[in-house]
Amino acid sequence: MPGLPSYHAAAAMALTIAMFVAFARGRIKTEIVSLVTIAIIALGLYFWPLDSIDRNAGLAVAFSGFGHPALITICALMIMGRGLVVTGALEPATLFLDRVWKFNPQVGMLVSLMLAMGLSMMVNDTPVLVLLLPVFVQLAERGAMPASKTLIPLNAAVLIGGMATTIGTSTNLLVVSIAEDLGMPPLRVFDFTPIVLLAALVAIPYLWLVMPRLLPDNGLTAMRTKRRFSATLRIDEDNELIGMTPNDLADRLPEGFAFEGPQDRQITASSRIPVSGTHRALEEAMRVFKGRVAPAWVVERIRAAARRQRLDVIVVEMAITAESRLVGLTIPSSGVAGQFGVAVLGIHQQKKSDDRGRHEYSELTLKVGDVLLVMGSLAEIEEFAETDRLLLLEGAKEVPRRSKAVLAAAIMLGAVLSASIGLWPIAVSALGGAIAMFVTGCVKFDRVGRALSANVIVLVAASIAIGRIILESGAAEWLGLVMSAGLQYLPAWRAGRDHAVRDAADQFCVERGGGDRGHAHRLQHCQHAEPAAGAADPRRAVRV
Predict the structure, then answer these.
(1) Residue 298: closest CA among 258, 350, 338
(2) Among 25, 130, 268, 458, which one has the highest count of C-beta atoms within 10 angstroms of its own C-beta?
(3) H-helix or E-strand containing 288?
(4) pTM, rounded to two decimals
(5) Is 439 exposed, middle or buried (0-12, 13-18, 19+ CB in 10 A)?
(6) What angle do CA 142, 131, 203 make, to 5 degrees?
């Protein structure tokens, strides 16, 4: 049996166990535990350095994770995932999903699981969930399968897909990078995808048919009722709706959207049709009917100002307070478009006005408690709220930069394909893709903080530091010797299979002893090795 581990090795193992216990208990935030772990390694190696390295090299071990290729790759993939979200590049997939659920909920569930798994193979798990969660909540509100029965299977499918490629999850990137550092051949993006797909043949049917039946049905009682906004749908002269009536469009109406007023009036060029719907329904109606809910000159002015100031265009809900000057006015008479450069897309009124549906929403008199759906840059909206005494409500949403959607998708696809065929390492392709996102404007550099997850960054850095200290302190070697010594007591029918494991541990010990890091003193623990032959030519050992 090997002797006791060195105090460095014992301390490294104790710190690893303490870190995982803190993660499991959940009382302290993950990022705090990770930073404390890095700090303990740095201080420990500075005051009690390893025999083979000096104090400054010990600090390099503690902070090596922040410059590791795995972390650079993870951050680059987060940036590219952010580019897909803010440009709306993944919206076609969500729209397809919506149509399938309307056709058949069971088929929709299966397609949703496959789509979530497929997307998470190419994009980091978090952006995929951020994109799909609102879709599933909306589907639940429309009477499909309850969210309590769909969100957990969806999350599991995302995790399965993330395990299928080297870029799907942060942990895959971390393990692959460390394995390459230890001398293993580099793994390409899809090298272990067949193994995961084989497991998915069992997992996906379980998530589709069994898990939803086991999960409770929490219903829709806890869901917040979405506000419906009165708006005006503006029809251009070349619109295909000209000559039709609202009755003719009944089967094409998005969920939560309705035409107000007479349903038999004919739509003409430059028509301004009173409508109502939720924020999401109004967006869907503009896409389906190719109309606008704000004057073209106002929208173009907002977008031009946002490009000039390098700001994002957002849509927010703003409540009118008793002190607001807007009380008693209409939207045109208030002059907000010309004064602040914002567009009021719709109005939500607590009590339905008697004249709503007969006139445009812009003719409605504003009252205390009304909620405005406003589009503009953040700076202009904040100025509007402060000047006119409006209350900004939660739930601000960025307007996708759809003109760059194809470009963002092409950048992501190019980065993944170039790495998968071995043209260059994934770290290089991911970093190049992130730079391309910045250069093309798909992601704005001053908004990069929204793409990166701080807790993931420090967690990966701490994991790399823990791995380094476990290796450098000799803890990994000691644990391998303990396992090798224990295998000799297994029954005889396992001896042949386990002999290779013992030989691998012996050869590892001999190699480490003859290496250039000054670990020859550890050879005394190798009970099964042949020091004379192994030490004479450690390169003869075959790596397993």
Answers:
(1) 338
(2) 458
(3) helix 279-289
(4) 0.63
(5) exposed
(6) 85
